[in-house]
Amino acid sequence: MLIELKNVTKIYNQEQVNEVTALREIDLTIDDNSMTCLRGASGSGKSTLLAIIGCVFQPTTGRVSIAGKQLSRLPDRFLTLHRRQYIGFIFQTFNILPTLTVQDNITLPLVPLGIPPAEMRRKAAVLMERFGIAHRRNFPASQISGGELQRVAIARALINNPPLILADEPTAHLDSRLSEEFMHFMKDLKSAGKTIIITSHDPLVTEHADVDRVLDIKDGRIDAA
Amino acid sequence: MNSRLTQHLNILDYALSSLWRRRAKNLSVLVVFSWVIFLVASFQLVTQALTETAASVLRSTPEITVQMMSAGRQIGIPLDVSRRLAGIFGIQDIVPRVWGYYFDEVSGANYTVMGIAPGRMPLLDRLQLTLEDSGVYDSESRGKAIIGRSIRRTMEEKGSTLLSMFRPDLSQASFEVTGVFKSEVDILTNDLVVLNIEDARDLFAIPSTMATDLCVYVANPAEVPTIAKKIAETLPGTRVLTRSQINRTYQVVFGWRSGFASVCLLTALTAFVILAWDKASGLSPEEKREISILKILGWETADVLAVRFWEGILVSGIAFVLGCTLAYAHVVFFNASLFKPVLIGWSVIYPEFRLVPSFRLDQFLLVFSLSVLPYLAATVIPAWRSASVPADSALSGM
C-alpha cells in the first residue's frame, strides 16, 4: 500500500479571521509494510497530516493517493467507505466508549457492515485471545485497566483487517512499560504486513528499532533536516 | 441472511444499547410521553364509547319528532295538527307525547317526566326488557311509574316508597314505582320517570287537546329526510327533528367536550414535542465524541442517523403502546373515572353507566399521527445535524 502526498496544504477557516495553515506543501511517500513516525511539537500539524492520510478530511490543495487510488476531492461518503475498508485508527486517549463492553467496543466498526452478530463475535474473540483480554469480554470498558484499554483500542483497529494502521499519540498517557508493550504490538503488526504510521514525540516510539523512518513536522512542513 | 437486513438489525441493536446506556433520561421521556398519549387516547376512547352507547340506545326513538315553536322556544302542539300530516305518504303512525322537566327541590335534581299513551308507541313491548328483573310495566293503569336508577337512589335516601311530585297548583301527585330501568340504559334513563300519558297531563296541567310533541313513525327509513321536509313545509312554525339529528347532537356535545379536552392535551403534547426537538438539537460533549468516533471507525452519517431514528421509533413506539393500553384499561376497568366527569358533565343525579370502548383503527391511527409522528420528526430532523458532526473532532490537536 503505497501512500503518496503531493503538494498537500491544509488551511482551517479559510478566508476567515481565524484562518490557520496547518500544513504547507507537503510532499511525502510512505512505503508499503513500513513503520513511519511523524514527530513534532503540539500544533506542528502532525495530527492534521495523519487525518488527511486517514481520509478523515480533505486537503485544501494537493493530491492524496493510497494504493494508487486518488482520494482527493472525493465526497465524504466515499472517504468513509475507504476508511472502513483500508484504515484502522488508534487514538491518543484510545476513545473507547466507556459504557460499552469490551466486545462491543471492538466490534463497533463492523456494525454498519451487515455482518451477522455471530460472525462479529467470532472475529472479536480471535483478537481478544490474541491480545489477552478475552476474560474481559463482557466488562464495561470503564472497568478495565489502562493497559487493557490500549489492547482494546488495537483490537478495534484491526477488526476489519485493514492494511494501514494510523496511531495518533498512542503512548501519550501511558507509562514506559505500556509504551513498550504498545510498540511490541506494532512490531508484530508490521511483521504481519501492515503499514503503520504513528504520530508521537515520545522517544520510546521515535527511537524504537522497528521504526523505519522518522519525519519531523515543524510549522506545517516536513523538516528536511 | 440479507446483508442489508443484518445491517439494520445491527444498528437496531446498537440503538437499543444506546437507549439503555442513557436509561435514566430515556425512561423519564418514556414516562412523560406515555402519560400524554394515555390522556389523548383515553379521551378518544371515552368519546367514542359515549357516542356509540347513545347511538345504540337511540335506535328505539321515533324516526321523526315534531315540536311546535313560538318565539324560538318549544310550546305545546295541538293534537289536531296530526290530521294535516295524515296525508303525507310514508307516515306509518303519529303518536302524541307528553313530557317535561320536573325540578325536585329536596334533591336539587331535574327529572325528565315522560307520559306514554298505552298501546300507541312502537317497540313499547320492549320497555319491559329494559327494566330490572322485578320491574313491571303496566301500560294501562294510572298512578304507576317507572323510574331511573338515580331517582330510586334519591327515594331510598329520603326513605320514600312513593314517588311524589307537585302539580303547578302545588297539589301533590303520588305514584307507585313498579319498575326501575337497568344500568345498561342509564345514559338515557337515569333521570327519567315514565307515567301513563294522562298522569303526565295531570301533573303538568296539559289539556287533553294538546301534547308536548308528536312522534312520527315512518315505514321506510330511507324516506325519513323527505318526509321530515314535507312535514316542515306543511307545518311552518314547527321544529322537525329526525333521529339522526338527535344522534348527531349527542355526538356534537360529547365531541365538543372531547375536542376541548383534546385541544388542551394537544397543547401539552406540542410542548413535549418542542422539548424533544430542543433536546435532540443539542448534543452533549460525550454524544459528539461518540459520533465522531463512529465516523472515524467507518460509520456513515446515514448509519448514525439510523441509530437516532431507531431510538426515536423505540421510545415513541413503546410510549404509544403503553399509553394506549393504559387508556383502554382505564376505560374498561376503571370506567374512565379520570375523564368521565369532563365529558358527561355535572349532575346531582349522576349516571353510573359503564363505558364499553370498541377498537377502531382510525382512532388509533389518529392518536399515532398526533403523537409518534411529531415526536419522530422532532428527534430525527435535528439528529441530521448532529449526525453530521465531523469525524475529526475525536482526533487530538484539532
Question: Can you give a write-up of this model?
Answer:
The complex is a heterodimer of chains A (225) and B (398). Chain A contains seven helices and ten strands. Chain A has 225 residues and is an alpha/beta fold. Chain A has one domain: Rossmann fold, CATH 3.40.50. In chain A, the strands form two sheets. A six-stranded mixed β-sheet of chain A has the order 6-7-8-3-9-10, with helices on both faces. The longest helix of chain A has 16 residues, at 176-191. The mean pLDDT of chain A is 90. With 398 residues, chain B is of the alpha+beta class. Helix content of chain B is 53%, strand content 18%. Chain B is built from twelve helices and twelve strands. Chain B has helices spanning 3-21, 23-57, 81-85, 149-158, 186-189, 197-204, 224-234, 243-281, 285-296, 301-334, 340-344, 361-387; strands at 64-70, 73-75, 77-78, 91-104, 109-116, 144-147, 162-166, 172-180, 192-196, 210-211, 213-218, 238-242. In chain B, the strands form two sheets. In chain B, strands 1, 2, 4, 5, 6, 7, 8, 9, 11 and 12 form a ten-stranded mixed β-sheet that branches. In chain B, helix 1 packs across helix 10 and helix 8 packs parallel to helix 12 (361-387). The radius of gyration of chain B is 31 Å and the shape is elongated. The mean pLDDT of chain B is 81.
Question: Features of this protein?
Answer:
heterodimer; A: alpha/beta; Rossmann fold; 6-stranded mixed beta sheet; 4-stranded antiparallel beta sheet; 10 strands; globular; B: about 400 residues; 10-stranded mixed beta sheet; two-stranded antiparallel ribbon; about 20% strand; elongated
What characteristic shape of chain A results from the CA principal axes? globular
Integer tally of domains of chain A = 1
Q: Count up the helices of chain A.
A: 7
Uncertain runs of chain A: none
- How many separate structural domains of chain B? 2
Along the chain, the helix and strand elements of chain B come as: HHEEEHEEEHEEHEHEEHEHHHHH
CATH superfamily of chain A: P-loop containing nucleotide triphosphate hydrolases
Percent helix range of chain B: 40-55%
SSE run of chain A: EEEHEEHEHHHEHEHEE
CATH architecture of chain A: 3-Layer(aba) Sandwich
**SS-derived structural category of chain B:** alpha+beta
- CATH fold name of chain A: Rossmann fold
* Oligomeric grouping of the chains: heterodimer
